[in-house]
Amino acid sequence: MAAVRIDLTLDCSDAQLVAAFRKSALGYAGQPPPPRFATREEWLAQLELPEGESPDDERWARIRAAAAPPTPAAA
User: What pLDDT, in 10s, does the model give residues 12-36?
Assistant: First the structure.
């Protein structure tokens, strides 16, 4: 059987959408929130980010990704 090469290009104009797709496609489960917080959003909201920045900014997304790598979902 001959090998088949597939090239895939994803439009990253909406990085959050691409991240959600990859998370789903690879079967990753989200990180649980730190103790004392019901959701990760609640935890992020209590962080004191510099004025004019949000946890959705690209720089903070890279920091969060480096600090909390995704874990495979349970089968």
Answer: 788 888 888 888 899 888 788 888 8
Handedness of CA 73, 67, 42, 35 (dihedral sign): positive
Global confidence as pTM? 0.37
The rounded distance, in Å, linking the Cα atoms of 75 and 70 is 15
How far apart are the C-alpha atoms of 46 and 36, rounded to whole Å?
12
As a three-state string, the secondary structure of 10-50 is CCCCCHHHHHHHHHHHHCEECCCCCCCCCCHHHHHHHCCCC
Tokens standing for 19? 């991240």
- 59 dihedral zone (left: phi>0; alpha: psi -120 to 50; beta): alpha
The SS3 call for residue 61 is helix
